[in-house]
Amino acid sequence: xxxxxxxxxxxxxxxxxxxxxxxxxxxxxxxxxxxxxxxxxxxxxxxxxxxxxxxxxxxxxxxxxxxxxxxxxxxxxxxxxxxxxxxxxxxxxxxxxxxxxxxxxxxxxxxxxxxxxxxxxxxxxxxxxxxxxxxxxxxxxxxxxxxxxxxxxxxxxxxxxxxxxxxxxxxxxxxxxxxxxxxxxxxxxxxxxxxxxxxxxxxxxxxxxxxxxxxxxxxxxxxxxxxxxxxxxxxxxxxxxxxxxxxxxxxxx
Length: 253
Fold this sequence. Notes:
By secondary structure, this protein is α/β, with parallel strands linked by helices. It is about 50% helix and about 20% strand. Strands 1-2-3-4-5-6-7-8 form an 8-stranded parallel β-sheet, with helices on both faces. The longest helix is centred in the C-terminal third of the chain and has 19 residues.
């Protein structure tokens, strides 16, 4: 699709009060998007809502938060396995071992193993959540073959420096959001990721029904690019072109 100059590579347009209006608003701002979902049923709804929105790609998701609190289980994993064969875009998937969700570690591992195995044939773009679990995420992706056969994007990387280097050696990408740049470690990681592996994201709206302002999102992405270029001491125009090129290629836009 022509006319897109920037991309939000991890957002949740189905959380917006009017998903189609959100997508149209982004298109008017020259913005493409990877709209992640949180469960397979939500993916089916979002795909219908956003059908015909050429600037948006909808990801088939099975979010670890939904697995951890029991909203998603084996039946949802089975529906994911059924749907993913014909889908290219997968997200949000992954693991979250933060204290509030660590008790559901085994359930999360079992579901994510199924998710990764279902993506093992390759050719997909995965947007991955990994909180205190980047090593385990990489282990599973590697063991199932999903790591080498797909474009794996760590959404808001927050693991250790060694885990980041392991992910980069494996060819993974990283989507950067403003909150990542708010921490010293996040800024260090944003400098460490090679330019050709960098993506931008907003992770918005933050929850179902939250307001969504397309112009505000476009401005946030532009500001994020300003900050990232300054942080890396590189030309903003060159960085913008490289990130847009990578994003458009991943989304086939």
